[in-house]
Amino acid sequence: MTLAQLTSVFVSFLLIPFLIRLKFKLSYTLLISAGVLSIISGLGLETAGKVAINIFINPSSRNTILTVMMVSILGGLMKHYKILDKIVESILLVIRSKKNALMIIPAMIGILIIPGGALLSAPFVNNIGEEMNASPSRRAAINLVFRHIAMFLLPYSTPLLIVSAALPNLKIFKLILFNLCFVVLIIITGYFFFLKDIESEILPPRKNIRGNLLKLAILTSPIYISVIINGITGLPFYITLIASIFIVYLLSDKKDFFKGLIKSINWNTILTVIAVLIMKEIILNMEDLIGLFNNIFGTSSNMLVTMGILLISSIFFGYITGNITASLAIILPMLSQLNITGELIYIYTYFVFGSAFIGYFFSPLHLCQAFTLEHIGVTTGELYKEYRFYTPILVLILVVSTFVLKILFA
Hints:
This protein has about 400 residues and is an all-alpha fold. The chain has 23 helices and no strands. Helix 2 (about 25-40) crosses helix 3, helix 8 (about 135-145) packs antiparallel against helix 21 (about 365-375) and helix 10 (about 160-165) packs parallel to helix 19 (about 325-335).
């Protein structure tokens, strides 16, 4: 049964690029793949139906869907009223290098730790990258690489909240210091692979920097105000985003605002999210497959063997679900049973976090990737060709940095 479930995962994933080549929308592709996965894994369409219903009953899944809807509204309104263009103009009035802008813009918008945030950063990177004659696949890679920095560093990011729940004795700010090591290496490596060879003019010295910074803070307030309110009140993002949309209303000319609001709802994006959640839940219902990894953990005692298992399983679950939180939710409870103490628990958690991120980052179900490709007009194959050297280097960086941290702190 376990082999059948494992085979079903690979078969259903092979369908995704095939259906996309047949010009199926991503949302329909994922729904078809989820149905095929449910049938050939032995779970059946009845289970798939129950999963689909539970997506709307489960508060977490429902919040995700509503949040993505609100983000699509926010992004659509900011684009409609040219606020995104004004933000880019303001950043370039403060920063002299367009290369730096290509890193800063997606990283700044990445503070919006919610699914669908790539809908906001992709237009910026696409426009500036086009001006610099960067290829579409390169623009997509830049947007994806630099927009994920915040999830490693913000204590209220969803992945770090999962860590806190699974390992309550862990000091989260201490883990963030470890994560900072990986983030710095991501920035350096991302610059080397995707920005270093792009020609960019150095703009003249900036004037009235203080005034431009204030203007930038006002224009970007719809992006960060919801994050601040969420951090203070704990309200769901789909509620705090109402404040962001209200600020857009204040910044706009208010002409046909509510008409534009309705038009900004991206139903295809919402359906894509629903399909991803269904796919993820079907996989998590495969008890034999999940049990296989539990048994492997229970029989390993050597650190190298354990780390190998953690690397493969974290990447595997991150990849097949396209969701870092799903991978962490599966692996971290297992990690908590290994009786690891002291600094070593931080190093193992750092390693699992990075591994889950790598699986999620390169997954075709990764929402940010799906939205970025759709906006910029790039195929999955073109993007993966851009990643051909970056992928193994990122894995190598994680492994080497983990052993360096072990030598220094454990």
